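Hello again, I could really use a second opinion on something today. For a while now I've been wondering how a particular protein folds. Please have a think about how the structure follows from the sequence. Here's the protein in full, and shout if anything looks odd to you:

***
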Amino acid sequence: MRPAPLPVRSGTGRFFVLLGAFVCAACGLVYELELVAIATYLTGDSVTQTSVVLSVMVFAMGIGSLAAKRLRSRAAAGFGAVEAALALVGGCSAMALYAVFAWTGSLGGAWAGGSRYLLVVFSLVIGVLIGAEVPLLMVLIQRIRRQDAGGAVADLFAADYVGALIGGLAFPFLLLPMYGQLTGALLTGAVNALTGAALVLGLFRRDLSARSRRALIAVNAAVLALLGTGVALVDDFEQAAREAIYGPHVRAVVRTEEQEIVLTGGRNGSLDLYFDGRLQVSSHDERRYHEALVHPAMNGPHARVLILGGGDGLAAREVLRYSGVQRVDVIELDADVVRLARNDPALSALNGHVYRDPRVHVTDGGAFHQLRSMDRTYDVVISDLPDPALTRSAKLYSQEFYGLVSRVLAEDGRLVVHAGSAGSRPRVFWTVEATVRSAGLRTAPYRVEGRLTRSASLLDRVSSGSGAPRDWAFVLAGRTRPGVVLDPAGPPTRSLTQAALVAGARELGRTRMTGLPPSTLVHPRYGAGS
């Protein structure tokens, strides 16, 4: 192989090739992480999304490496074309996935049916293009100066791995907080396109015919123009997509380190609160849920109450209706949820302005961590946490977690856990019940009818296929088996009756699944498909 006629010294040329490998590797890892992040955001199951994206990409990289053998004779032109294609596909992937989610709603449900083609297609195409990079760079670096194959491979892989490290760190600590998923992916594509074009046109332009040079310039200009247009329009796109998901009456949008919080409605209509696209609260029927969650657990001593989650203040509202309550501690992971519930006029009115009550004390942070350091006991512990089928919530429904809860539970105290929908995901619900029992507590499961509103979350649609959960199911527990009974001296309930509780508990008991092992930190047994 003849050395390439370069505009710089060979040592400088090798440096630029390795620098190109470094930047391209960083961009490639950003694309991988961005696909995992956007898919997890849209469906909530991080383990499945990570497994699918990475396994498909690694497989596709092998295909790309083999396919690159056909381009070795035209390595410079091939590398330029690969980087332009990778910049376009990778840069636009997040926006395309989000668009499908927003305007069709099919992405969330497609995976449950085994047909999430779009995510797999993007993973496959990006993987093939990433896999083609190193073989072509290997040819280019050998064109500068002949080197033994082992040394050239070591140099390229060193640059590639260090670049992957930088890309992996830049994604969560720089791109996401500063630019968000969509703009971050678009900017990464622009960097990718500029790097590929600069390397080929700057160092190896003599390997290209005049026609190939013009074509490469035109293609990269078109790619950069498309990516730049995407960056310019991303705010309008996000607003349109948000309206497609949530409707036109968006009151507030808050992006935090934990999630995206969206509050909609409130003007003579239903006030809806969403976390990462999943409907958490609807004023249309939230009182039915919160009365069922809180009131059965309050039948007994209830001077000290601990609420895990529940930053919207609605569970605390029901607790404070009992005159004997002296202290309510709320542990909420995301302080912005509490801030919104405290400051938004409609949401604070819905929760009865509970955060003005001096008996309510808020602790920011994860429930697992806070329970480990807690030294007081409670008469009632209310677990109002995200759905157990979400991977990131699995530890909050583990044997270890309920062991920590039992430590802060008074001798005659009660724990109540919202455990999802027994009708839609019975195995998940009964696994929660088995896990609570494994922590040494006796249980009394019960259920009430599910959401009435039509504005159900996309995850709800995946789970039940009907646009809303079939039911809300709960596990009431204590050191002695508690009765699912409303306090006869307690405040009146608007939608919950003792007859409905008894009927729901009896009906739920007929569906009991026995022999289920408990979920633990090292062996979580929940999943969206359970």
About this structure: The radius of gyration is 28 Å.
